[in-house]
Specification:
The protein is an alpha/beta fold. The protein folds into two domains: 174 residues, Rossmann fold (3-Layer(aba) Sandwich); 86 residues, Orthogonal Bundle (Helicase, Ruva Protein, domain 3). The protein is 38% helix and 18% strand. The protein contains 13 helices and 14 strands. The strands form four sheets. The protein has a seven-stranded parallel beta sheet with strand order 5-2-1-9-10-13-14, sandwiched between helices. Strands 7-6-8 form a three-stranded antiparallel beta sheet. The radius of gyration is 19 Å and the shape is globular. Bound molecules: ligand FO1. The site of ligand FO1 has 17 residues, from helix 2 and helix 6. This is LPPG:FO 2-phospho-L-lactate transferase. Keywords: Magnesium, Transferase.
Length: 323
């Protein structure tokens, strides 16, 4: 079975571990979000691609869900000693090697998709990881400008500054995938979607992760026209995000932080099935009324067994909507 998964960061990566366990024979292609990418110290950092690569490759810092295990921060300390910022983004020494190799290969003319393939040759994640595009897209978030004085204006900050430095503690008025309009799907993305038997939207952030992937011209259309089951898992449980601060960016795009609202946001033109957590069983009827098959199952990714069960439920629902 050929499965395509649109994955963002931590939630997507953890779900993929369960999917691999639930469907060990499947051929899994992951279309990775690159809107979180940031250029720091002259290096290109791809947080969501690295989270998938490290998580499935066995190098992830398990509690954080990002960065490497057994990390040290000597280079970061030395950069700070030179007064070279930013200090709010925690790049570790082992992680720096990934960004140096990536930046060196891009400088030599390799597209991000080829670079990602090369990095995965070391990590062997057991899935094919393709960036959503080889073109540069960076998600920016519009917030109040603290320097603009009373009733002042707003400014756009890089997603990572909003997410990590500001801890999403201020209102987000808009989320902008800068560069999306001119971007093309990376080589292999549309082919993987066209050849898929099932397409899954994991419990990643529906705005800045899955939403950004869908903003690459051609990807949303290819999924809608693929003619195969598209099944998603709600990242919102009990009207709150399981992890991260998805509710902040959902508000920015006018979507209520509920499992049913996120399903409606993706729409029945895209989604055939939607899994909500058992605490949201009351919303199953509402989602089904929107033309999307819905089932309430445990969605807390507490351990591999739980995530494997979720993945199995998603594949079962896919089998039912296909019929
Ligand atoms: N997330 C944080 O909350 N704090 C950090 O200092 C941080 C550093 C970091 C370094 C490399 C990397 O690949 C990811 C990193 N993240 C950090 C996670 C990053 O913000 C992700 O983009 C989000 O978690 C959303 O996926």
């Amino acid at each position: 079975m050929r499965i395509v998964v649109l994955a963002g960061g931590i939630g997507g990566a953890r779900f993929l571990r369960g999917l691999q366990a639930a469907a060990p024979e499947a051929d899994i292609t992951v279309i990775g979000n690159t809107g979180d990418d940031i250029h720091l110290f002259g290096l290109k950092v791809c947080p969501d691609l690295d989270t998938v690569m490290y998580t499935l490759g066995g190098g992830i810092h398990e509690e954080q869900g990002w960065g490497r295990a057994d990390e040290t921060f000597t280079v970061k300390e030395e950069l700070a000693a030179y007064g070279v910022g930013p200090e709010w983004f925690g790049l570790g020494d082992r992680d720096f090697a990934t960004h140096i190799v990536r930046t060196q290969m891009i400088g030599a003319g390799y597209p991000l998709s080829a670079v990602t393939e090369a990095l995965c040759a070391r990590w062997k994640p057991g899935v094919r990881l393709i960036p959503m595009t080889d073109d540069r897209i960076e998600t920016h978030v519009v917030v109040d400008d603290p320097d603009a004085g009373p009733g002042g204006g707003r400014k756009a900050v890089h997603f990572q500054e909003y997410w990590v430095r500001l801890r999403a503690s201020v209102p987000a008025y808009a989320v902008l995938p800068v560069g999306a309009e001119g971007a093309k799907p990376a080589p292999g993305v549309l082919e993987a979607i066209g050849e898929a038997d099932v397409i899954l939207f994991p419990p990643s952030n529906p705005v800045v992760s899955v939403g950004t992937i869908l903003a690459v011209p051609g990807i949303r259309e290819a999924i809608a026209e693929a003619g195969v089951p598209v099944v998603g898992l709600s990242p919102i449980v009990g009207d709150a995000p399981v992890r991260g601060m998805a509710d902040k960016v959902l508000a920015a795009v006018g979507v209520e932080a509920t499992a049913a609202a996120v399903a409606a946001h993706y729409g029945s033109g895209l989604l055939d099935g939607w899994l909500v957590d058992t605490v949201d069983a009351g919303s199953v009827a509402e989602v089904e009324a929107a033309g999307i098959r819905c089932r309430a199952v445990p969605l807390m990714m507490t351990d591999l067994a739980a995530t494997t069960a979720m993945a199995r439920e998603a594949l079962t629902l896919a089998g039912e909507v296909r019929a």
